[in-house]
Amino acid sequence: MTERPGLVVIGAGPAGLAATLAAAARGVRVTLVDAAPEAGGQFHRQPGAGLGARRTRALHHGWRTWERLRDGLAAHIAAGRVTHLADHHVWCVEGARGAFTAHALLGPGQEESVAVRADAVLLATGGYEKVLPFPGWTLPGVVTAGGAQAMLKGGLVLPGRTAVVAGTGPLLLPVAVGLADAGAKVAALVESADPRAFVRHARVLAAHPDKLAEGARYAARLARHRVGVHVRHTVVAAHGTGRLDAVTVAALDADGRVRDGSERRIPCDSLAVGHGMLPHTDLAETLGCRLDGTGVAVDDEQRTDVPGVWAAGETTGIGGAALSLAEGRIAGLSVAARLDSRAPEPGSYAEAAGARAGLREFFAVVDRVCAPPARWTERVGDDTQVCRCEEVSAAAVREAVDGLGAGDVRTVKLLTRAGMGWCQGRMCGPAVAGLTGCPPTPARRPFARPVPLGVLAREPDASP
Amino acid sequence: MVGAACALYATRAGLRAVVVDRGPVGGGTTGAGEGNLLVSDKEPGPELELALLSGRLWAGLAAEPGVGESVEYEAKGGLVVASASEGLTALEGLAAAQRAAGVEAVPVAPDRLHDLEPYLAPGLAGGVLYPQDAQVMPALAAARLLRLARTAGARLRTGRPVTQVLRTASGAVRGVRTPHGDIHAPAVVNAAGTWGGEVAALAGVSLPVLPRRGFVLVTEPLPPRVRHKVYAADYVADVASDSAALQTSPVVEGTAAGPVLIGASRERIGFDRSFSLPVTRRLAAEATLLFPFLERVRALRAYQGFRPYLPDHLPAVGPDARVPGLFHACGHEGAGIGLATGTGHLIAQVLTDRAPDLDLTPFRPDRFPDTSPAFPGTSAAFPDTSPEEGP
Ligand SMILES: Cc1cc2nc3c(=O)[nH]c(=O)nc-3n(C[C@H](O)[C@H](O)[C@H](O)COP(=O)(O)OP(=O)(O)OC[C@H]3O[C@@H](n4cnc5c(N)ncnc54)[C@H](O)[C@@H]3O)c2cc1C
Ligand SMILES: Cc1cc2nc3c(=O)[nH]c(=O)nc-3n(C[C@H](O)[C@H](O)[C@H](O)COP(=O)(O)OP(=O)(O)OC[C@H]3O[C@@H](n4cnc5c(N)ncnc54)[C@H](O)[C@@H]3O)c2cc1C
Fold first, then answer.
1. Full residue range of the structural domain in which residue B98 is found
2. Contact across the interface for A405 and B158, Cβ inside 8 Å
């Protein structure tokens, strides 16, 4: 790398793409770095090249937005304003004001690293799924909601013939519809939240007729596919020897207890579970950015508290593709102005800021209503595995807390190894926090990806 | 770790102990370091004597039913290597002095190094094997020792910061204050590690404990390939160094659970929690020089902790002549896990008015000039109360 681009954008989802287009259109040289083979992020995930992708279009709504982003990116790349580094896994960003270096491992092997230098950094790394354990969750056939969606969108493989979709939150709807559209029999959609709770937030809902209409469209499509929707229900166990063959679903009362006698067994060969998402904050934390709750804290212009570092999209909080787009656009405009030592004109992003405010308000309500059901930890049996990497059971976590004096996620990790494995607690963090009875605390992970010591040991090639 | 060991030996000596911590068990530096129990890195003198005593006590504890496995005790021995002949001469000189002080130190010829460590880099000048070096998993060790103490009658109060050391009219200690109430006792042991200076200040005395930062790299789990604790001879010079600048020369060790630990760096930059890629780069570079196969092994994480150090690199162990009833057991720098058992044992002896097995004069807590202005008494806010990161 000999050029010194103005801005490095990490993550080519809606947020990173919107920012790239906005900044490049104003003359900023942008390097867009993403781990995936193609741009698009979670929402616009592209089927791998070579697969018969006839259904692609049907699986994507917001197709027009995607076309606009994709074509805009291609135009900027052709004009030499944007460099897109696909298959680049950023493991660390270092630096301070005006001089940053993003270190990225190349390709599927991830054995070699390149250094990308820039004056400014935008973190648009999105989020990852929150997973909560229950008896049987480790059986083959149980996947995350996002995993099922990714299989549909990316590989166009149907995860199973009879599926149950369960958990909580708005992601369950597109996943259930997507599976049904692709030909799976969706035996049930099991949502633990009570939609009547939304009524308490009627004012916010009324301000988002588009979201209500979207919900209604999903409901209609689920009805058309004859998918039974069970609200205030939960999957209490998954069954099978060697592979999933059924789940037990039960109704919850107002206190989150299973209603006596409400258990029902549903045969199925796949179960997609989702409990919402959590922001990816590793790179931000290593740079020293402050967090706000679970996401990266940003100001009006999407700036973090570290000068020269911006963040946009789900890395700052979970709120869907439209919010990521709005935040990305604002960040791109701000970077363009600030690199030019100007303040962005508020008028230039008033529309995006309006959309951002509304969507944040809406998703704050979603977050409150679609929290994991109370008492979910009581249903996690002692022999249920909590940390898959290190094979730590719920009993071991409980013993660390009750018997050895652990009081937080970190000490439980030290005493049980839960969260020390390959995924570094991304998977089991929320579960361990729940069983420990403390709020999930973000774990600092200096390396966003495992990095070979030989790579770490080498000074990055000196470039101007 | 040190508090747990003090509680265990005090309880076994017949005292009733209450362990008070503002956080959870192992929430301080103990959960953010490594568990090398080393004699190899210590020059003859009081610290080495404490290390030898501690090593014997660790071995004794590990031999009690169930204890050894539960703390992942491994008497694996240390191997110190030198890359060039000057380094080897210095290393052999140190080993001779250590042998005179009771350490087992066996010279290893260059052509025998690979019998001990098959994956070691070629071309090294030689080394010394220290069979008495061992290891434990520190957080488990603290938790398990506390559990043994509790089984013997000690009580544990976590989540309670000590905000005041209570004194009688004549100035003697009579307990501690916490937001959850006072705890009365005729003796208080300050085992607050890196924060020991602040707890001393609560009792009105100065103790200049300062933080010395260290990073540790942790690899993916591997089949056993590193058998001993292996480090380069410059490590000893680093440990004893007075320089504030960054020093590395990491100990490379395999763990029972599979990952290889590479650590640790030493820097004096206060409680700076920001991540430093250059420091971890140095650790990686030096470890891959010793073990070239590590080049392709992945680091999963890095963590940092703050060692409690006193200006002369010796801990404060024993009664404080300035305040009757106040005892200190802190400031063990990079060896607090290893030295915990000896420290706990000696503290129990002086608490029960017995003659300690070692002369405590070099460890006297009041051996430093009074630096009260830097530690302004009870009003000293705790400059750093955030929990450590840990592995
Ligand atoms: C199953 C599912 C269904 C959904 N359905 C809808 C829906 O119907 N409507 C809706 O509005 N939203 C939906 N969403 C949410 C939508 O996908 C997200 O809101 C949106 O993608 C967030 O955009 P983003 O740009 O913030 O992050 P993402 O789209 O997540 O993009 C982040 C990008 O960063 C890259 N990245 C992360 N870390 C690194 C790294 N260290 N190095 C290099 N690259 C990195 C990733 O590869 C990814 O491409 C759905 C999400 C899921 C999981
Ligand atoms: C990177 C690194 C590597 C290391 N490697 C090794 C090694 O290989 N071998 C070795 O022997 N040592 C090693 N050490 C050093 C070792 O970790 C420390 O010496 C040891 O943990 C100190 O133990 P401690 O009990 O004195 O302190 P801590 O474990 O810090 O315990 C002090 C406790 O006091 C509590 N506390 C503080 N203030 C108050 C208050 N006001 N009220 C109530 N409670 C309070 C804290 O919450 C804490 O739990 C290493 C250290 C680091 C950082």
1. 78-131+210-309
2. yes
